Amino acid sequence: MEQKKYWKGLEELHNTAAHQEVVKNEFKEELPFEESDSFLGATTPRRDFLKYLGFTTAAATIAASCDIPVKKAITYVNKPQEITPGVANYYASAYTVDGEYVPLVVKTREGRPIKVEGNELSAITGGSTTARVQGSVLALYDVARLRYPGINNGPDKIKLEDRVKELTFADLDKQVAAAIAGKPVVLLSSTILSPTTKKLIGEFLAKYPGSRHVTYDAVSYSGMLLANEASYGKRALPTYHFENAKVVVSLGADFLGTWLNPSEYSRQYGVGRKINQKSPEMSKHFHFESMMTLTGANADERYTHRPSEAGVVAQALLAALGGGISAPNIADARLKEGIAKAAKAIQANPGKTLVVSGSNDVNVQTLVNAINNLAGSNGTTIDWAVTSNYRQGIDADMVQLVNDMNAGSVGALLVYGANPAYDYFDAEKFKAGVKKVGVTVSFNDRYDETTQLCKYIVPDHHYLESWNDAEGRSGYFAFVQPTIAPLFKTRAFQSSLLNWSGNTTAWEDYLKNEWIAKLGSQEAWDKTLQDGVIEPAPGAALAGAAFTGDVASASAKISAPKTSGFELALYEKVAIGNGKEANNPWLQEMPDPITRATWDNYACISNKVAKTFKTELGDDYEINAEKEVLKITSKGKTVELPLLIVPGIHPETIAIAVGYGRGKKEFIGKAAGEVGVNAYPFVSFNGTTFDYFAPEAKIEATGATYEVGLTQTHNSYEGRPIIKETTLEEFIKNPKEVNHDRAHLFETFGENFRNDATLYHEHQYPGIKWGMSIDLNTCFGCGACVVACTAENNVSVVGKEQVIKAHEMHWLRIDRYFSGDENNPEVVFQPMLCQHCDNAPCENVCPVAATNHSSEGINQMAYNRCIGTRYCANNCPYKVRRFNWRDWNGADSFDDNLLDVADMNDALTRMVLNPDVVVRSRGTMEKCSFCVQRLQDAKLAAKKAGRPMKDGEARTACQQACATDAIVFGNVNDKESRIYKVRNEEQTDRLYYVLEETHTLPSINYLAKIRNKDAAPAAAAHGAEHKKEEAHH
Amino acid sequence: MTAFPALTDANIDDILAYIGAEAAKPAGGAKGADGATAGAGAKEEGGNSLLFGIITLILAIVAVILMQINSNLNKLAAEKEGHEQMEPVPFYKNKAYIALCIVLLFVVGGYFTIQGAIGLGRQQDYMPEQPIFYSHKVHAGINQINCLYCHSSAEKSKHAMIPSENVCMNCHKAITEYTGPDLFTAEGKKVNGTAEIQKLYDHIGWDKDAQRYTKPATPIEWTKIHSLPDHVYFNHSQHVSAGKVQCQTCHGEIQNMDEVKQFADLSMGWCINCHRTTKVQFAENDYFTIFEKLHKDFADKKIDSVTVEMLGGTECQKCHY
Question: Would you say the pTM of this structure is higher than 0.90?
Answer without folding.
Answer: no
